[in-house]
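Escalation from tier 1.

The customer reports that the assembly of six entities below gives different structure tokens on two consecutive runs. Tier 1 could not reproduce it. I'm attaching the input and our single run for tier 2 to review.
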Amino acid sequence: MGRAKTIDETQLFQATEKIILRDGYAGFHFKALAEELGVARSTIYNYFSKKEELVTAFMVHLLKQVVHHMDNVSENEEPVRGLVDIWSKYANIHQMMHVMPYIDREATPLVQSNVQEMFGLLGSMRSRISTILTKEQERGRVRKDIQVETMTGLVMAVVQIPIQSDQEARWVEEVYKLLKDGLYD
Amino acid sequence: MGRAKTIDETQLFQATEKIILRDGYAGFHFKALAEELGVARSTIYNYFSKKEELVTAFMVHLLKQVVHHMDNVSENEEPVRGLVDIWSKYANIHQMMHVMPYIDREATPLVQSNVQEMFGLLGSMRSRISTILTKEQERGRVRKDIQVETMTGLVMAVVQIPIQSDQEARWVEEVYKLLKDGLYD
Amino acid sequence: MGRAKTIDETQLFQATEKIILRDGYAGFHFKALAEELGVARSTIYNYFSKKEELVTAFMVHLLKQVVHHMDNVSENEEPVRGLVDIWSKYANIHQMMHVMPYIDREATPLVQSNVQEMFGLLGSMRSRISTILTKEQERGRVRKDIQVETMTGLVMAVVQIPIQSDQEARWVEEVYKLLKDGLYD
Amino acid sequence: MGRAKTIDETQLFQATEKIILRDGYAGFHFKALAEELGVARSTIYNYFSKKEELVTAFMVHLLKQVVHHMDNVSENEEPVRGLVDIWSKYANIHQMMHVMPYIDREATPLVQSNVQEMFGLLGSMRSRISTILTKEQERGRVRKDIQVETMTGLVMAVVQIPIQSDQEARWVEEVYKLLKDGLYD
DNA sequence: CATGAATGAGGCTTCATTCAT
DNA sequence: GATGAATGAAGCCTCATTCAT
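Tier 1 run:
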């Protein structure tokens, strides 16, 4: 039955995230990855034949999770709060997104399609937010004097507000309030 | 004496920004820079003896400008709006900040001190915002039920909201409103 | 598994010696080394990640050999002659030592420790010679009116006396005599 | 009458020696030299149009001094001692000679002729020593059972015996004795 | 003469990727 | 499948040297 696999995609993704979060994309090489996983560098090529393919696949994977969460939230009575809640759990996704400019998007067809999928997913996120906001507008909860794009941008941006670890609940609370009612009394 | 300079620091900084914004930090080499400026690669080393030194010097330069602007604004009657106004002009500074994880901060002593200065300036920005918010709280304009840090984070984060070029005025208007009064009616 | 090595440390050391002896340290680059060995430049980096690491490792290796030889000689009835004999075989070691001022000793920790080891080995050589001379003094063979350090220096210095190839035996004979009885009748 | 010279050959030579002795030939650049002298790098090219020309000129200059000293000594009743005496004063010349393998001897015609002159001077040194030794043989002072070349080599080699500063007199004494009568009682 | 500026040549390194076992 | 070894491409950096003022 051949040799048993020593690693799988999940481990690759975990190690990838760990390294990128720890060392930034600059510190993310197959060299480092191999060390992290305790396998030979060349072994990774049995799974992903190109660095960019791995990274983009990983990001697709991440984004899918987020989008999935968003789907389960949109039915909530307080959907904006639900979004903030998700952000608190996927804060690092933004760090991950920053690696995008460093990726050669033309590298291979697979990379291209991954990148396209990523953009698709990002679009989904945005449009889910838009939808939520529009619905809320219809319900008379959200203001109508501002473009939905700008508001969507704001909702996406708040993920950048630093969270102190073990203060997530408070972060959600405060950020939600700020989003809802703004800075002013 | 000696011959006339063909480039100066200003041009270096401009080219640096241009390249980083266009290609990301990954595409920023002295090779690219030299091509952009039409000089030999080694010429650049007469100005900055290390890639990191140039980039960090540039970022310090940028941040200084922003902080300087902030100083001239804080006396305004509507200081939060002033901040948003600055953000609209320095939107790219955030893109620039994203290169930080890619910089080898130990590269040289000069780099180290530049990086320290950068953090100092970022701190200044934050503390200026804090101060503004606290003062506004005292004047009874800004709410008091939320930690100043979180609010500062929000103010800094809005710079990430995408601007459509030639829509800056509107962006400022809308973002300011959102900041002030939130999403909700 | 993996493919068979095309070079090993021994070949690297041999090539290193050959090049340094032929071209001096100035002519010793990984480029030259790679050409000499018929491999790609980068291949060498799989063995030694820095020029200085290779050179210093090589010198440690050389010195160890010499010290080892010295140990097997000290029991001889005519130990000074034994030393001269060793010198005749390791004449080039002195040429090698001349590269030391050209080595960046701080390059890496490994380099540092290699350099330290080198000095340790040189110290060993010196102290072995000292010991021999002192013992010979006790046996009443070696004069006592001169500091042992100076005599040790003399013994080490004679390695510089040029040898004509295929005249080694004669060189040993004559140098030994000179060491023992001096120039004068 | 034109601008006054700010440096001259003497200063160049002094600075050259200082740097080479301090940092080794590796640390000897026109950059360092210019700093040492407080002039622009390019200024040096008004005096020597090539690094090698400067270095070789300097070495010729040094060797000439030594040879000159040797001439004034050879008339002494104890000529070997006289040589040792000179060595004590020019100990560093040997360090200087070690840079030779690093010099591109073909660099320019001037370099070539300098190098030739250097070899000539080294030959002079050797032949002066030979002559002295031969004369001493004739006077029945120096042994005849050993080739003059080997003995010359010994005399030249002793310059390598380390001198402790402010112990020069003693060094001369001891080395002379060793040369004359050897290590053995 | 002196100099500041520019440059080219050459060496150093690091990885992603490919190969052969 | 896994691996150790080899490699090429690409970027970094340092000087000697040349140029123009």
